[in-house]
Amino acid sequence: MAPRTFWKGYMKLSLVTCPVTMMPATTEGEKVRFHTLNARTGNRVTSQYVDAVTEKPVREEDEVKGYERGEDDYVFLEDEEIEAVGLESTRTIDIDMFVPDHSIGWVWYDRPHFLLPGDEVGQEAFAVIRDAMAATGTVGISRVVMYRRERAVMLKPRGKGIVLWTLRYGDEVRDEADYFGKVADDKPEAKLMTLVRKLIDERTTAWETEMVSDPVQDRLLDIIAAKKKGKKRPARPKPQAPQDGNVIDIMTALKKSIQAEGRRSSR
Fold first, then answer.
1. Which ranges are annotated Basic residues under compositional bias (predicted)?
2. Which of 132, 133, 172, 233 is the most buried (most CB within 10 A)?
């Protein structure tokens, strides 16, 4: 069953406008979730803000956002002041520039969403924008209010639709040169590369969604099912014994790995 519409609005390129709808491309709806309960009464526990100094509960109408400018010194901001700095239109994706596809590094990608025509009338305009981006190898850049904040977004054509990615803010992304620059620039031996490539070939297979299954959730569901039936909790798997810490040379390790792969393939 397709999820209900998450966002409705318009996609605009210059004078071309079409209605669109958007849904998140991912979901956490199937995740096992827990409530915090009072073990004595079985009732749910609710959270409440407490004054850090007086330790008394704070009423919701007394809560205000503050920016710390010094120790115990804050600038107060009302919700209306924060909302006033957002985009005037929260329902229009106005594509004001394009950049080459693949020029935006993966680290900037935040949340994916499926974007599709909002009605039959707008399908032609939607299709021409989508196909033109695909033909030119570009992605669109825009800004839109989502999740109560103004976000930069990237529009990437995919099949019959468009994937809209929210992009991370500039201060959220670290420079990889600060980390990878410390790694030695030594080139591995050709013989080692040959053996590793052979090992990769042995283990290369088609992508399947089962590769990203959640074993912890599966075990939690087993425990919950057992408790519903009044059974004992399934036995916890024994931890594996630590491997031998002896250091062997890479060439020997690769040769043993390839031999093991060959035996596994024959089975």
1. 227-236
2. 133
Q: Encoding tokens for residue 227?
A: 């408790």
Give residue 193's identity as a one-letter amino acid code: M
| The CATH classification of domain 7-26+85-168, taken from the options 2.115.10.20, 3.90.45.10, 2.40.290.10, 3.40.190.10 | 2.40.290.10
CA gyration radius for the chain?
27
Q: Is 7 helix (H, G, I), strand (E, B) or coil?
A: strand
C-alpha separations of 201 from 123, 192, 195, 211, 253 in Å: 44, 14, 10, 18, 17
**Nearest CA-CA partner of 129 in 103, 157, 96, 102:** 157
> What are the pLDDT digits (tens) for 26-70?
887 778 888 899 999 999 998 889 998 999 999 988 988 888 888
Secondary structure E strands in 147-184: 149-158, 161-167
Pairing of the two strands 7-13 and 92-94 = parallel
Residues 50 and 43 sit within 8 Å (Cβ to Cβ): no
Neighbours of 170 (CB within 10 A): 8
The residues spanned by each domain of the chain are 7-26+85-168, 186-201+248-260
Write the pLDDT tens digit of every residue in 225-261.
887 787 766 566 666 655 555 556 777 877 788 777 7
Written as six digits, the tokens of 129 are 């924008």
- Decide: 116 and 161 in contact? Cβ < 8 Å: yes
Q: Tell me the whole-structure pTM to 2 decimals.
A: 0.70
Structure tokens at 109: 């990608």
Determine phi and psi for 39, rounding to 5 degrees: -65, -25
In a 10 Å sphere around its CB, with 0-12 CB exposed, 13-18 middle and 19+ buried, how is residue 144 labelled?
Answer: buried
